Amino acid sequence: MPELLTGTQMQALERAAMARGEARGTALMETAGKQVVESIYSTFPDSSAKPDRSALILCGPGNNGGDGFVIARLLATRGWQVRVVLAGERAQLAGDAAGNCQLWGELGDILPPDPEAVERALPRPDLVVDALFGTGLKRPLSTALRALLSHALDIAHHSVSVDILSGICADSGRWLGSLPPLGPVDLTVTFHRPRTGHMLSDGGTATGRLVVAPIGLPQAAPVPPGAGPVVGLVTAPAGLGDKAAAGHKYSHGHALILSGGPGRSGAARLSARAALRVGAGLVTLAAPSAAHPEIAAQITALMLRRLDSPEELDRLLADPRYGALCLGPGMGPDARTRLLLRHALAHGRAQVLDADALGCWSDAPEDFFALTRGTETVLTPHGGEFARLFPDLAARLRAPATTGPAWSRLDAVAEAATRSGCCVLLKGADTVIAAPDGRRAVHAALRERRAPWLATAGSGDVLAGLICGLLARGLACYEAACAAAWLHVEAARAFGPGLIAEDLPETLPRVLAGLSAATPGA
């Protein structure tokens, strides 16, 4: 799985490479500036080809500002009319940033960080480059710098950020301060690997098109010890589109989906259909006998069993061929669901708990966690369910982020996984997944992978079914949750506008076939 980096981890990688003699600060800064300029030309070819093109470069007092001076110099040598604003005093600059400021001074002047001065010097630039603070920002923008950046973004035809939009915490993606976030920019150019903040919260929407450019650091270099836990970026899972040639239905897993009563079976049927489509060899719906007529009228490849009491669930689970369970969709947040969940957990199967299986414990989350700790369980809350089970963690996410690194969705879900003792998937455009052993990942349905059509009733039930089907196929909880998150979004993207939840399972064969075609030798 590809890795995302925090600002601290990127700085640690750079320091380690320079200590080993594999990189020099001057060369890293020059390469970063060149990569931004090349990305500008490839992203905005019309503006770049204009004979009278102009650019406003906002430089901060650190290395991000040093990148900005390189960009200004390279654009000026290509014939751009360039104006540079420095946020701070030249005397504050040090090292490579100071050297590149001096090189720029041989070509042009430096404006004060004043919107009126900018307006007089360059009233309508084709391009603004935000090189104020990047990934090292630890505090909110001052009122003056916020006004400057806001003005620059308003007047420019195109906008570019170096590393990340200034004002956003590169670790959490949260806007620092109590005022509304600025942006989005059209293009963000970052280096070596994406940052977690590009995928989370405000950063997910403010980043615009994201280009990850090499700057000469060794690609295989691991994050140095002590720089914080590594975060994975969920991508296409390998091997899910294929089944063993000599397998039979039981060798591909048997999933058991628990259903609600009459008039409430639709959610479980969606989950069951998804589990079957994702490759489980058999899928059984267990429902109250009163709901059987309506369920039987709607299903063909699924099997149906009676579930009128917890004891009947015990008898079902006495069959060891049931490898995975899904509890919650359409069951109702009531005492029956609680009791069934207690019995299910006692049998030690892999399971996904969604919707009402979470809601029925909102008044007693610690009792719930006492049951889930140490089990092979995936919890799949949306934001509201997460807040009811983990109110203190949700409150920290709602509070304004005043300093960086700010508390993030990753931090919250990692703590939730530790507290509950099982895998937690917090749903959203920036879905976050964490395991109790410390592994964590982000699946970002953003930019080229955006899938707004998933905001439809029943899509979460399908996700729960996908996880259950993958658990039945033998995937571990964390791997099943990551793979299901990707498949869920990919099916929505493959179908497109007009999607309803029923379309997701029926689109899966096309997605799985694409995975098979992408697997060498498949």
From TrEMBL:
GO terms for molecular function: ADP-dependent NAD(P)H-hydrate dehydratase activity; ATP binding; metal ion binding; NAD(P)HX epimerase activity. (6S)-NADPHX binds at residues 63-67, 134-140, 163, 267, 330, 382, 461. Keywords: ATP-binding, Isomerase, Lyase, Metal-binding, Multifunctional enzyme, NAD, NADP, Nucleotide-binding, Potassium. GO terms for biological process: metabolite repair; nicotinamide nucleotide metabolic process. The keyword Metal-binding applies. Residues 10-223 form the YjeF N-terminal domain. InterPro entries: Carbohydrate_kinase_pred_CS, CARKD, Nnr, Ribokinase-like, YjeF_N_dom, YjeF_N_dom_sf. AMP binds at K427, G428, A429, D430, T431, G460. Its EC number is 4.2.1.136, 5.1.99.6. PROSITE patterns: YJEF_C_2, YJEF_C_3, YJEF_N. Binds 1 potassium ion per subunit. Residues 232-515 form the YjeF C-terminal domain. K(+) binds at N64, D130, S166. Pfam families: Carb_kinase, YjeF_N. It catalyses: (6S)-NADPHX + ADP = AMP + phosphate + NADPH + H(+); (6S)-NADHX + ADP = AMP + phosphate + NADH + H(+); (6R)-NADPHX = (6S)-NADPHX; (6R)-NADHX = (6S)-NADHX. Its cofactor is Mg(2+); K(+). In the C-terminal section; belongs to the NnrD/CARKD family. Bifunctional enzyme that catalyzes the epimerization of the S- and R-forms of NAD(P)HX and the dehydration of the S-form of NAD(P)HX at the expense of ADP, which is converted to AMP. This allows the repair of both epimers of NAD(P)HX, a damaged form of NAD(P)H that is a result of enzymatic or heat-dependent hydration. Homotetramer. PANTHER family: ATP-DEPENDENT (S)-NAD(P)H-HYDRATE DEHYDRATASE, ATP-DEPENDENT (S)-NAD(P)H-HYDRATE DEHYDRATASE FAMILY MEMBER. This is Bifunctional NAD(P)H-hydrate repair enzyme. The gene is nnrD.
